[in-house]
Design a protein that fits this description.
By secondary structure, the chain is of the alpha+beta class. The chain is built from three helices and twelve strands. Among the domains are: 57-108, no CATH class; 111-186, no CATH class. Strands 2-1-6-3 form a four-stranded mixed β-sheet, with no helix packed on it. A hairpin with a 4-residue loop joins strand 11 and strand 12.
Length: 191
């Protein structure tokens, strides 16, 4: 009888105190996604929240440019970067500092807006264009969004036409000449 009672108390205490809740020092567990997960995870990517409300002015070769240029500029074409932590007012807009980037020889790059790029490389279409650069959807003004034409590796245009949803989009994906994109492009898959 004592043995049964002792066994019941041991099992009860193991189930009661065996699972600790809360944060335990030295015990870190991360849940990874598996094929058997029953809960669908929805992730909203909204980098506007992360944008600096007090941006500095960005100059490239002495010309005020958009931050969009940083998404396609080749780091090899930069000769120097100068940061000045003094507020600047340009065209009635207050900037909290200045970042001046000096590029190498002008023949190494060709900057144009996304709309200029579309007119030059994408077949004319009445569909609404949606640009993506290296996996990031562009949600800025295509007339002011600058890219380096010479640093674009590949353009993938996917037309989406869904009459029931009244959607007519040209999804234009630009891949830059990053080491990762070049490696993936040169990869041959044999099935």
């Amino acid at each position: 009888m004592r043995l049964k009672f002792l066994l019941i108390i041991v099992l009860f205490s193991m189930t009661t105190f065996g699972q600790l809740t809360g944060k335990v020092t030295g015990l870190n567990s991360t849940k990874t996604d598996t094929i058997n997960d029953t809960v669908i995870k929805v992730v909203y990517k909204n980098d506007k929240i992360l944008r600096n409300p007090m941006p500095p002015a960005l100059f490239f070769n002495g010309k005020l440019v958009s931050y969009s240029l940083l998404s396609t500029i080749n780091p090899e074409n930069i000769s120097s970067v100068n940061v000045v932590k003094i507020d600047t007012i340009i065209d009635s807009i207050k900037y909290y500092g200045r970042i001046s980037i000096q590029g190498k020889t002008p023949s190494n790059y060709n900057y144009m807006t996304l709309n200029e790029f579309k007119l030059k490389y994408v077949s004319p279409s009445e569909n609404v264009p949606v640009f993506q650069i290296d996996g990031t959807i562009v949600d800025d003004d295509y007339n002011g969004y600058l890219i380096d034409e010479k640093n674009i590796l590949r353009v993938i245009v996917t037309p989406v036409d869904n009459p029931k949803q009244k959607i007519k989009i040209d999804f234009i994906n630009l891949l830059t000449k990053s080491a990762k994109n070049i490696e993936e492009t040169n990869q041959i898959i044999i099935r």
